[in-house]
Design brief:
Blueprint: H1 3-15, E1 18-22, E2 26-31, E3 41-44, H2 49-68, H3 77-80, H4 86-102, H5 105-120, H6 123-132, H7 137-161
Helix pairs in contact: 1-2, 2-5, 2-6, 5-7
Length: 162
Amino acid sequence: MNAEIQKKLVALAAEDGLETETAKDTLLLSRASQHSEAPLAVIHLDQPQHEVIFAFLHALGHFVLRYKNPRPISMPWFVNRPYENETVGEIAYKTRRTLRLKLGKEWQADFWALCAYRLIGCPDDLKAFLKQHPEKRPLFLMAVAGHVKSSIGKFIRTLFHL
């Protein structure tokens, strides 16, 4: 693995209060505040670099989303309200259940990891990862759309504050 990229990953983990340790072709990710023997994640370094980066960011995403900033999945108002009509109520229930299933912990960690690729600054590895995993492309496009929306919002706020 590229030493510069590994340094960036370690720094990103340290910002969130995690420690990393390299031991015998593995990268261990563990909590700095707890003196536990069990690591949070074990990433094998004998994989291609793009796989190692994604695995690391995915594990870091789990930590950030579940422990550092835990938030429940918010559901649209129309699937959370009670309906008098039994058929409409059943549709709302199934929609809510499907959203919780599809937008679960793994999906969120994948989304977080794809968003965090921008922080690492390795576009070639991201391209290689998306080429190897075409099922992640729609998720990546969502991450790009969110970044563009955020950038436009920041630009507009800056423009009006001048």
